[in-house]
Amino acid sequence: MRLTPGAGRDVDLGRVDLFDLDLYTSGDPHVIWDVMRAEAPLHHQILPDGREFWSVTRYDDVCRVLGDHQAFTSERGTVVTHLGEDDVAAGKLMTSTDPPRHTQVRRAIGTKLTVRAVASWQDRIRRAVVRFLESALDGGTWDLAEQVQRLPMIVAGPLLGIPERDWDELVELTAMVTAPSDPHYHQGSRAATLAIAHHELVTYVTQWVERRRAAGVEDGSLLDHLMGVRVADAPLTDEEIAYDGYSLLLGANVTTPHTVSGTVLALVEQPEQFEMARADLSLVPSLVEEGLRWTSAACNFMRYARNGTAIGGGTVPPGAAVVAWIGSANRDESRFADPHRFDITRRENSHVAFGFGPHYCIGAPLARTTLRIFFEELFQRIGAIDLAGEPQHLRSCFIAGMTHLPIVAQKRLRP
Ligand code: HEM
């Protein structure tokens, strides 16, 4: 998805199609969201097949939809690619569960993903990042977007307990789930791609659990932890373990790489920001936050209204699907000064790239640590980055990302 909007132009809100995938590969969604925030903060769209959804684009409304589980449930699905389909994992997968059950499950699973737990993995993460970056330094053209897809598995694979031989296949499968229409991942049809990937991922975790049980040894990994979690004095069911393992894999794999690509492209487009961060590594944490806001890799999440609910200056009917556009909220001018400017020194940056409320990203400490270490190591090794071709954007209205970002990275001459 284009992250720096082009010149403003007339937008006919009656004809806007937020499910048109061309918008995300070659269009300019930010120009449309700007107009929606100003003129139609609650927007209704009916798809040609009759499915319909409401959109909220303002920061406060996005927080309300994501955060108010009494009004907006997660139990009928939260991902736009499943609009109108009943979620088979409802009430079993943490993401598709409302409080109070959600709170209990999340608390139990989350003990392994706290800031403190992640801090203890820092050295391992740094070694993994260094290993990854070394391959970029041969002076040739490097397709960052393609290569960086492996980064989460290199970092989180050992933490999850997943052997290296399986990493590439899992990266491919998780990409298929999030962008089933992208030609890089498409297998037959969109529906077939989704079905194959879901099935393979759930089967992978199920078989992992069976093997671990048969071996009878614990390895302290995250998947192991899922097997030992107790909620209201009972273990998770095998189905819950499979779904939550799948969800952790998905969460880890599909967002961090696109945040890296989006941030690097912004730095290439604004070399003075690159220089500033390179000269002062204490700016890396705020660079990471700005990169998260700027990229908003999880472009939206969905909820269903339980009852007729007033929001965004209008009312959605009972049962309505409401899409909270995180990418738009993170450019809301009422919240962020000069929102379409990438600014690594931004002070007020309470972005919602990790969501808001009870489902706030459980992997945020891991993602933040990975991104911080990635950029610290990058700036210590690389003196300049040039584009070596046109970026290619992911064909998805759910994940804002790139499939190709060819760059040439020049080694830093002096420390
Ligand atoms: C830059 C990286 C990341 C971004 C932008 C991101 C974004 C998000 C967002 C917006 C949500 C909220 C979903 C909702 O409201 O329904 C979420 C939830 C979640 N994320 Fe992340 N995520 C990232 C990294 C990760 C990582 C590394 C993991 C795995 C370790 C992960 C696992 C999850 C899980 C399991 C949930 C569901 C939490 C719940 O339902 O309570 N994410 N993420």
From TrEMBL:
Transmembrane segments: none annotated. PANTHER family: BIOTIN BIOSYNTHESIS CYTOCHROME P450, P450, PUTATIVE (EUROFUNG)-RELATED. Pfam families: p450. Keywords: Heme, Iron, Metal-binding, Monooxygenase, Oxidoreductase. The lineage of its organism: Bacteria, Bacillati, Actinomycetota, Actinomycetes, Kitasatosporales. Belongs to the cytochrome P450 family. This is Cytochrome P450.
